[in-house]
User: What shape does this take?
Amino acid sequence: MGYDTACTLHFDGRTTRGKAFLEQHDLIFRGPLRLAIPLKDITSAVAGDGALTVRFGRRTAIFDLGRIADRWASRITNPPSRLDKLGVKTGMAVLAAGAVYEDLLREVASRGARLIRRAQTGATDVVFYGADRREALERLPQLKRALKQNGALWIIRPKGSQAITESEVMEAGKKAGLVDVKVVSFSPTHTAEKFVIPRNAR
Assistant: This one.
């Protein structure tokens, strides 16, 4: 999520300086004292006077974050949905190709985006391409043509699979004339990598 800052932590009667990281699944502190709090275990996150007070189980940790404490508290208590992370907005034209994820299609429809059944040149805001094997990557040039100039192609692949690896996906995207700009955890079993048309080629 890109949230990290130097700060002071007050925890278990100790006060120490280090660096805090607000990641997708955990709030982490690294320093002389190390702490990792799963976000799912946090029962409250409250900001006040530049401090973020986090309660989990029967324990409390206070992070002196300064002016960003409010933003971190909001991020913890109102985490972005999967569609937020994937950049799907109301009114967008969305194409699903390759392996189909029915739960994703339901989420897209509920967001008010328009599902396209067939690829149309330059008409798609977001393409979700389920690729379970490296051979599927041969379709990337075709899918690129469906994108609007500022559109996004998400390649969804199984985590840790030797049938299609991260390096193969990156190489195929580059070969198709795309650049990778983001990676998110699509599900416990799958990763999604975002590709876009380079600015100088739009």
